[in-house]
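Quick bug: DUF3341 domain-containing protein output formatted oddly.
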Amino acid sequence: MPRPLPLYGLMAEFDTPDQLLAAVKQARADGYRRLDAYTPMPVSGMGEALGTNTSPIAWAALAGGVFGGGGGLFMEWYANVVSYPLNIGGRPEAAWPAFVLPAFELTVLGATIFAALAMLALNRLPRLNHPVFEAPRFSAAEVDRFFLCIEAADPHFRPERTRAFLEACGAVSVSEVPG
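Here's what came back:
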């Protein structure tokens, strides 16, 4: 007999974006924090309702830029002043104008690498398949249906209580998402 898969969460289907938005707001007000919404089009106010308006990717890119640019400047200064000083035509060893272009390039490279790594980490990638794709009728999220998934990892998640909550929010159907 095959063992049942662990539960990833509960998926509620809604008819309209307004119903979904109201359900997300109710879920956040009820204390749920690990939830996500799936819609066929952008819904105004959904990011604020989900609490996902601020992304740490910009901060990761800034940190990468500072690290890359600062590291580049230090590397150039160290090579030209400490490690291998050369007197070229009487110019100063720390010729900052000559350091700007490589430092700029390293700033862009550092910001790009840090942003890409932050994006992969935040999206929990690489992952070949997301559990929500196994939910019944989830393919309708590409066409005209609106879905709210509350993850089982949420501290407030109780299967029966969460199902009753989603049904009380006006969900057309509530289904289990295997993990």
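Actually, after a second look the formatting is fine. The chain is about 45% helix and 15% strand. Closing.
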